[in-house]
Amino acid sequence: MQLSLPVPELFSFAQNLSYLERSPLEILYTVQNGKVYRAIDAEGTALVVEIGMAADDSALLVRFLGDGPPPGAAVRAAATRYVRRWFDLDTDLRPFDEMAQKDTLLQEPARLYRGLRIAGIPDLFEAISWGILGQQINLPFAYTLKRRLIEQYGRRLEAGNQSYAMFPTPERIAGLSVEELRPLQLSSRKSEYLIHVAQLIGRGELSREGLLAEGDLARMEQALVRIRGIGPWTANYVLMRCLQMPTAFPIADVGLHLALKQALGWDRKPTIPEIRELAGGWSGWEAYATFYMWRLLY
To answer: Could you tell me the CATH number of the domain that includes residue 128?
Structure first.
C-alpha cells in the first residue's frame, strides 16, 4: 500500500535528505538510494515506512513495509500526520523565502538550501529528550547519548530483512532510576529530567495537544519552562522541532552563535543583544532563520 502526499511550493526532497544524512551517528532512520526509511508509531501501531519522491516531484510517496496486513484508515491517517510533520509540509515557505532574499545574513543559506524544511520531531517525548540530551555538550556526543538510550531502552521493528530502531516510549523510561541510566554516561541531572518528563507524559499531564491548546508561543514556552530541566533554549527547540512554531527562537543556541560568527566574518560570537538586532528582520520566521543558519554548520 502506498500513500501520495502532495508537496507545497518551495519543497526540495533532495535538500531534506541531505540534511537528514548529516550525521553517521543517526540511528532512527536510514537514507538509501534517494529514499528514507523509518519505523514510526501510528496510533499505537508500529510500522516501517519508505518515503521517496514521485517522478514528477509533485508528491512524497509513502510505502508501508513488512509482511502484515495493510494498515487501516486510522493508522494511515496517523502515518500521514507523522510524515507531514516530519517534513513540515503544511508550512507555506514563500513568505520566508521572500524575506530571506532581502536579508544580508540569510541570502546565502536561503540560496544554498532552497526548499529545505525544518526537520520535525513529531513525537513530543523524543523532541524533549533530544533537547535535554543536547544541553551543554557538543553535537556528536549528544548523538552518542541518543544512540545509547535507544539501543538500551528502545525497541526494534523488523521489515524486509532489515531492523529499524524506535525511540524509547515514555512509559519505558518513566519506570527507570537514575542509577539505571548512569552506564549510558548520562549525568544524574539529565537522567532525572528524562525520567520526570517521561512520567509527566505517561500520566497525561504533558502532551503535544495540551501545549498547542495554550494558544500562543509565550504561553507554550511558559508551560514548558515550568518543567524541571527545561529552560528557554530547550523549550524553544521543542516548539520549533515538534510543534512547528515558526516564531520559536532558541536565541541562546551555541550553533546559531557560531553560524552568525561565520556568516559575519567576525573573530568572536555575537552577543544576545547583537543577535536580537541582527534578527530584527526575521519576525515571524525566527525558527526557519535559525534552522537555515544552523545548516551552514551542520
So the answer is: 1.10.340.30
- Grid cell for residue 242: 515538534
Q: Is 26 exposed, middle or buried (0-12, 13-18, 19+ CB in 10 A)?
A: middle
Q: State which residues form the domain around 30.
A: 2-88
Give yes or no: residues 79 and 145 share one domain: no
* Catalytic, out of 92, 97, 253, 267: 253
CB distance 1 to 63 below 8 Å: yes
Q: Is 227 among the domain residues?
A: no
Q: Which residues of the chain have pLDDT under 70?
A: none
Q: Which of 206, 239, 260 is the last residue of a domain?
A: 206
Examine the fold and report which residue of 206, 236, 254 is the final residue of a domain before the chain moves on: 206
φ, ψ at 178 (rounded to 5°): -60, -40
Question: E strands along 119-263, which residues?
Answer: 155-159, 162-166
Overall number of domains in the chain: 2
What would you report as the CA-atom Rg of the chain, rounded to the nearest whole angstrom? 19
**Is residue 190 one of the residues assigned to a domain?**
yes
Q: Identify the pLDDT of residue 280.
A: 96
263 near 278, Cβ under 8 Å?
no
- By CB neighbour count within 10 A (0-12 exposed, 13-18 middle, 19+ buried), where does 181 fall? buried
Do 6 and 83 lie in a common domain?
Answer: yes
Using an 8 Å Cβ cutoff, are 93 and 10 in contact?
A: yes
- pLDDT for 69: 82
User: Against a cut of 0.85, is the pTM above it?
Assistant: yes
Q: Which of 121, 190, 129, 135 is nearest to 154 (CA)?
A: 129
d(CA 200, CA 181) in angstroms, rounded, equals 18
Told to judge if 253 belongs to the known catalytic residues of this protein, a careful annotator would answer yes
